[in-house]
Every structure is written in structure tokens, then in C-alpha cells.
Amino acid sequence: MPDRPMIEIASVTRTYGKFNALDDASLSIRPGEFFSLLGPSGCGKTTLLRMIGGFDTPTSGTITIDGQPMLGIPANRRPTNMVFQSYAIFPHLDVEQNVAYGLKRLRLDPAEERRRIDEALAQVSLAGFGKRRATELSGGQRQRVALARALVMRPKVLLLDEPLSALDKKLREQMQVELRTLQKAVGITFVLVTHDQYEALAMSDRIAVMFGGRIAQVAAPKDIYQRPVNRQVADFLGGMNFIQAALVGENGTAIEVETMGFGRVTTPKPAQWSGKGGAVTIGIRPERLRVLWDQETARHELSGTVVDRHYFGEITHLVVAIPGMDAPLSVTETNDFGADDIPVGAQIRIAYEPDALVAMAD
Amino acid sequence: MTVAIGRRPATPARPGLLRTEQRQGLALMSPTFLFALVMLAAPILVVIAHSFWTQTYLTIDRTFTLDNYRIALTEPIYRDLLMRSLILSMSVAFLTVLLAYPVAYYISFHGGRYKSLLLFLITIPAWTSYLLRVMSWKVILGYNGVLNTALLGTGIIDEPSTAFLYNTNAVLITLTHAWAVFAILPIYVSLEKVDRTLIEAASDLGDGPIRRFLRVTLPLTVPGIIAALIIVMIPTVGDYVTPRLVGGKDGVMIASAIEVQFKRGANWPLGAALSVTTMIVITVVAVSCVGLLRWAAGRIR
Amino acid sequence: MTRAPRFLGINWLALYVTLYVVFLYLPVLLLPLFSFNDSAVPNFPLSGFTWKWYEGLLTTPAMLDAARNSAMVGVAAAVTSTLLGICAARAMTRYRFRGQKPMSALIMAPLVLPEIIIAVALLLVMLRLGLQLSLLTVVLGHVLICVPYSVTVLIAGFEGFDRSLEEASTDLGETAFGTFRRVTLPMVAPAIVSSLLVSFTISLDEFILAFFLTGTDATLPVYIWGQLRFAARLPGVLALGTIMLVLSFVLLTIAEIYRRRAARRANVDGGLLA
């Protein structure tokens, strides 16, 4: 079966007393995929990751890895390895001994062991650091040791629990690229837990967004960003203008709505469409609205007054009041054409494409 | 204002079923706990039981009686011993805490990078044999002792004084010395916990060094003071070595009476009643002291 | 850090602390001083340097017996209390369970009980059970009072021990026993050594329990107690006391070094001790 999922999560629930850490979660992760579990703290993402790794047990439901049910199989006999949030580098061992820790159990031929250690250290650019003690490593280096120590075991699945959260911004961005490259090189399925939406968007093949123990949406980064299934998901992944609209018609795949300001719009039906008539929420990302310069025209445009502006270096955030709309629109404009020179109070026109408008559940 | 906070659900970071955790924890704790149960709780229960019995020579009569307590509380010799032990242990506790506080304060606030070295230095004398330290005080305070020799040498006194040894003062000095560290450490710990920005805030709001100390530092270290008082007061009430070696006639404390009943006098029930009475009285006194101190601390604003 | 308050140009607080330290060390340092003094009466002025009191010890069989007894009791008490301490400290730091608080309270109770009460209670039980008083009963008593100290030292070593280290070991394929052997034990070894040394020192110096619970065999403090009645034996006792003092000091310094190493290991970043 070529399409057999690497990890199959079927109706997994985990309760602590009366508290539902995870509520009927189902998920299928493909072989070789870089998969992210994204959500605010307490959403159940770490619980799910720890259950995959064998550090927690589902109250109900099943977890299958590479076709093998994981019920009753302890962490030390699972084909998974974990990069811990704290990295959990053994402080009494040096880098090499840390990497060799799991290999010792396998009783490999010494030359083979040596080769695998060197290979793993080279993979994470730590060649030559073998004799360093854990106490002598920087945060980024410790993270690399944790990676090498897990990868050297050649797991079917590598689990990463917020691996970049302890690093500063610059190093974090560098490690995002490296992790992604590394994953493509080794071809192992990566499951990453993060609360940072940019991290998830930048690295993943697919993302599962979670709230309050439930999986809200599973999709590729671009889809999840542009077609969020509900307001919560839309809000969690960056800015979004929410526009009230009234339903005027629908067919099997699309709905037609009458919006404030944007007129009558047809958009694909949202995935969690309740099927009921009445009020609908429409969203549009701030960067999908564009400022029109004096001579420019567009097929779809709005005009309004700048009521506030926020400068962010490469971009400017304009807050624009549109007559006939109850809330002002956020517009993100790059500064290469002088958006940072637009003063508060200026009358401007804004262009948009109707297909950037997305209907979503509340 | 109080905020109702529901019991937080077990953090997802702790794996394993709660029941397993309960069982594993209990299993791991039980050897030590059982040892304490058999070697401490049970013997104390046996003592309590004996205190309600009577003894003639070697036979124990197990009919319930409060006679031993009547004797312990009304016989002048025991009553006086108990009172003296209580007053002594309270005096020692307060004196020790009073003398120790500035030391703990100095280490915590001015110790800088020598903090742990200073703490270690302070701790060493406490680890040397208690018996030997008491003996040493005997050498210092005696008629021909170091103190008298020194005072004679400097001409402060003309002949050796007998005022230093074999009295209550000698017991007080020796015990204050012996329990110094046990007062310094808890106070030090509570001083370390005082957020230094609170003191800066008090200065910022106009308090001088003394008001700042009285209104911020001292109230915040009350838990440490209480711990120090209890740690010193309770064990000293039953001290045996010090009164015997340096106490003389006035310095005898209740422990000697208890020892006599168990060793030579062989009236176990009376000895048991004396032990139980001592424990109860010292607990009551300690708890009242703590309550009083808390109340006083609450009044400082 | 606030500046030390000064008055008349003198740092009174520092002066007070200095005097207090002198007060603490005075009795401790007098013992060695007089143990080398030629006179049989510990008094000033010193009359001359001598080793004779130390030489005298070597030819006192009762003292040598007591020393051997103390060593045996100390080792037995240290090992037992450390083993019990490991169980309790691990249970207290790693698990949360119902009954944990009262159980810990009982285990730590000897810290705040008058020793005479513990001694009397144990003596009463031993006598009622008709058990022969011996060094074994002393060991049991010493274990009881050493366990709270062991637990305190060990908790410091176990705490801050990142639990994910053990999880990482399991994740890398190690069994529960293997994890204990390869990760937990090496990490807490310094704390264990420290606990052994501290317990041994407590047992070595303990008098009341030994006095009540021993049969015919004396430990060193019990032997010293017996000698105190004879003024002529005082210099010998001072010499013996000095040896015990130096031994305690050495053992505790080693214990302290190990304790710090344990604390450092538990905190890789050294945040607490920096």
C-alpha cells in the first residue's frame, strides 16, 4: 500500500480528571511529510505529540504508526524519536556520548557506530564538536545535539516539541531553514509542535491548527492561510479583516452574499458551512488590499480615509475608514512606493480582487 | 480580594495515568515512611499509652489513670523543672533569633559573591560534636577558665568569678551558641526570597532605610523568623547534655527528670507522662508564639 | 545590593558579624589549642607544646574500641539513611500523590522533636519488646535522625533534575532500569555521596540516642561522656575531640563540594549558583 499513512490518529481523546486535553482528534500524517501541530498553549498539541512518542496514553482512541498499533508499546520500543523542548542534553556526557546514547543499546560494530555518530554530527554541522561537554554548548548547538541524537537512531518519525522556542529570533529563522533542508535530505516524517504561526507556515507541508483540544483545520500552509475554515483559525494565523454579510443565494459549492462595502460577492462555500441562512462572515487579508496611486485604476476599488497608521520598516499598516462599513479596514502595503508617506486623514482608494474574499464559519 | 481558583488540572507535561503516579509515588515513599512509622510514630504512641498506666517495680498496671499527669503538673519539683525548661527554651529561641537575624541579613544583603562561603563558614561549628562544644564552654566559663583568666589579666575583676558556670546563664549561652545556625539558615532563606525591587520601591515611595526595613523586609521575613523560633525552641526544651554539664543546680531541665524515670528511677509511666506533657506544652507555647508574631507582623503597616 | 549602613565611619553590621563569627568559633578552636598544651588543666597561659595527649589515646583500648564502634555505627547509619533518603527524596520530587504531605511530615519530624523524646520512646519500645540494647539499636536510632538530613541533601540533588532527561533516555530506546543506571544515578551521584558523608558525621557526633540506646558497647561520644567525670582525663578527651573535629570538618567539606557539584549538574546553565 503506497499510500498508507505514516501516522494514523483515530478519535483520540485524553482527559485529565474532568479536563479534556484532547477531544476526539483524528489525523493522518503521510510518509516523508513535514507536519506541524499549531495552536495556542493548552490547545492539546503537546499532549498529542507526547502520545505519539509514547509518553502519554490516550484515554480512548488509537494511534497507529506505519501500520502498527501503538497501544501498550512504551516509548523505548516505538519507531519515533523526540527533540525535547528543553533539549534534554545529558549534562554528564559529552556531545559524542549524547549522540551515541541510543546506539549503545543496539550493540553495533564499533566502526559502524563511529560512522553513524560522525554522519549524524555532520548532518547538523557539529563535526568536530564531539568532545565538548553539554555545559559548554550554546542554545543553538544544544538543539543540534538533540537533533543528531534523535536522527542517529534513524526513526520513522521525528517528533519536535517547540524546538526553536528557546532560541533568539535570528537563530530561530536560520534554524527553520536548516530544519526544513535537513528534513528533505533525510526524508523522515517530521511532526513539529509550535505556537508560532510563521514557523509553521514557513516549514510545514501541512499544518493542523488546534484549539481547546480539538483539531480545527488540517491543510497546506497556503490553504490554511488563505482559506481558514473559521474565524478562530483566521485570527490565529495573522491579520484578517472581518466583514459582516448577508446570504442571498447558494448552490452546491459556492455562496453569494451581500456585504457591507464590497457589494455582492460569490465565494466558495466554507468547509464548516452550517447550511443555515442569514448572517455570514467574510474575511480578507490586509495584504490582499492594495493602495491605488493617483493615475491607477482597478476593476474593484473602494475609497476611504486613513484614520491611523503603523510603521513596520518594510511595510506600513494603514487603518482605513470606508463609508458604509461599520469597522475600518486594515491595509498592509509595502513601502517601496511610498506608503509610509501617506498621512493620517488622507483620502485614498483601495483595490482588491473578489477571489481574495473568503467566507468562513464563526 | 480573593480570587477563586479551581484546582488546576494535572499539566499535560506529566505523563502516565494519575493512578499509576499515585501508586508509584506511594510505593517509593513507603520504605522510608514505614521506617518512620515503626521507629517514631509507634514508639511515641507507646509512650503516650504508658503515660496513662502505672508501674510497681517491674509490673505495669494497664488500668487507665491520669495520676501521672497529676504528678507531672502539680508536684513542685516537676512543675518547676517544666517551667524552667520552657522559659529557658523560649529565652534561647528569642535570643538566638535576635542575635542571628543581623548575621543572616548581612550574608543575604551584603554577602555578594562570598555568600555561599560565608554560609559554609557559619555552618561548620554546628557540625562539630555537640558534646565537645558544651565541654568547651565549660572550659571557657569555669572558675579557672578562659573567661576568668582573661578578665583577671585585663584587671576588670580582682578574683575569679563563679557567676559564669553552673547556672542558667551558662545554659543560655551554650544553647544560643549551639543553635545559632538553625536560626540563621531559615532567616537567610526567607531574606533571599525578598524581591529586592520591593525594597527599591519602598525607597522610591519615600521610606528611609529603617522604615523600609521595618515595613518591607521584616514583615516579609516573618515566615523565616517563625521557622527559626520553632526549630530552636522545640528541641532545646528537651536538652540533656547542656544542663548536665554547665547548668549546675539552677540549670537542671526536664530532660534530666525524664532520664531519671527511665534509667534509674524506673518509673516508666511517670517518665512517659513527663515526656508527653513536655511535648504538648512546648507545642502549645510554640503555636502561641507563632500566632502572636503573625498578629504583630500584621500590625506593621 | 544596598550599601551597608555606616555610623561614625564604622560598618557596625560587619563588625557585629565578625564578633558573632568569633563567638561561633571560640569554643570550637579552643579544643585543638588546649589539646596541644602541656598542662593537665586547660587554662591560660599555655605552658608548652606537646603531643603526649594524642600518644596517650593510642594506648587506651577503651577509646580504640569506642572509635571502632562509632565507625561501624556511622557507616551502617549513613548507608541505611541514604538508601531510605533516596526513596523518599525521589518520591517527593518526582511524584504527586495523596498522603504525600503527612508522610513527608512524619519522615522529617525528627528535625523538630526534642532528641530526649525520641531516645526515651525508642528505649521504651526496645525494653518492652525485650530487645537487647546494642550497637544495632543505636544504628536504628541514628538512621531515624539522619534520614531528614539525607532527604534534604538528596532533594536538592534531585530537584531541578529535568524530567525530560529520563524521557529522552526512554525515547532513545533505554529501559527503565537502564535509564536509572545511565542517566539518573550519574546525575545524582554527588548528592548521594554528600548524603552519606553528612549522615556519617551526624552519627559520629550524636550522643543522646547512643547514650540511651547502647548496651555495653560505647560510641565515641558515650566514651567521652564517661571520661568527663575525671578531671585528669580532660586533656585526652580534648585530643580525641580535636581528632573528631578535624574528621567532621574534612568530611563536611567534601560533602559540600559534592553537594555543589550536584546542584551544578542539575542546573546546566548554572543559573542558581552563578
What features would you describe in this structure?
With 362 residues, chain A is of the alpha+beta class. Helix content of chain A is 23%, strand content 34%. A six-stranded mixed beta sheet of chain A has the order 6-7-8-3-9-10, with helices on both faces. In chain A, α4 crosses α5. Chain B has a two-stranded antiparallel sheet. In chain B, β1 and β2 (59-61) form a beta hairpin. In chain B, α3 (76-110) runs antiparallel to α11 (222-237), α8 (180-193) runs antiparallel to α11 (222-237) and α13 runs antiparallel to α14 (268-299). With 274 residues, chain C is mostly helical. The two termini of chain C are 16 Å apart. Residues 268-274 of chain C have low confidence and may be disordered. Chains in contact: A-B, A-C, B-C. Chains A and C meet through β6 and α5 of A and α7 and α8 of C.
What is the topology?
The complex is a heterotrimer of chains A (362), B (301) and C (274).
Chain A: E1 7-16, E2 19-29, E3 34-38, H1 45-53, E4 60-65, E5 68-69, E6 80-83, H2 95-100, H3 103-106, H4 110-123, H5 139-151, E7 157-161, H6 169-186, E8 189-194, H7 197-203, E9 206-211, E10 214-219, H8 221-226, H9 231-236, E11 241-250, E12 254-259, E13 263-268, E14 279-284, E15 290-292, E16 301-311, E17 315-321, E18 329-334, E19 347-351, E20 358-360
Parallel strand pairs in A: 3-8, 3-9, 6-7, 7-8
Antiparallel strand pairs in A: 1-2, 1-4, 4-5, 9-10, 11-12, 11-14, 12-13, 14-20, 15-19, 16-17, 16-19, 17-18
Helix pairs in contact in A: 4-5
Chain B: H1 18-50, E1 54-56, E2 59-61, H2 67-74, H3 76-110, H4 115-127, H5 130-141, H6 146-153, H7 168-178, H8 180-193, H9 196-204, H10 209-220, H11 222-237, H12 241-247, H13 254-262, H14 268-299
Antiparallel strand pairs in B: 1-2
Helix pairs in contact in B: 1-14, 2-3, 2-14, 3-7, 3-8, 3-11, 5-12, 7-12, 8-11, 9-10, 11-14, 13-14
Chain C: H1 12-35, H2 52-58, H3 61-94, H4 100-108, H5 115-128, H6 135-158, H7 163-171, H8 176-205, H9 208-213, H10 220-227, H11 234-266
Helix pairs in contact in C: 1-11, 2-11, 3-6, 3-8, 3-10, 6-8, 6-11, 7-8, 8-11
Count of individual domains of chain A: 2
| Ends apart, CA distance between termini of chain A | 39 Å
Structural class of chain C: mainly alpha
Largest sheet of chain C: none
Element-level helix/strand string of chain A? EEEHEEEHHHHEHEHEEHHEEEEEEEEEE
Strands of chain A, count: 20
- Name the CATH class of chain C: Mainly Alpha
**Percent in helix of chain A:** 10-25%
- Oligomeric description of these chains: heterotrimer
Outline the low-pLDDT stretches of chain A.
Answer: none
Largest sheet of chain A: 6 strands, mixed
Average pLDDT level of chain A: 89
DSSP summary, beta strand count of chain C: 0
Radius of gyration of chain C: 23 Å
Shape assignment of chain C: globular
Figure out the total of helices of chain A.
Answer: 9
GO cellular component, one term (chain B): plasma membrane
Protein name (chain B): ABC transporter permease
Family (chain B): Belongs to the binding-protein-dependent transport system permease family. CysTW subfamily.
Subcellular location (chain B): Cell membrane
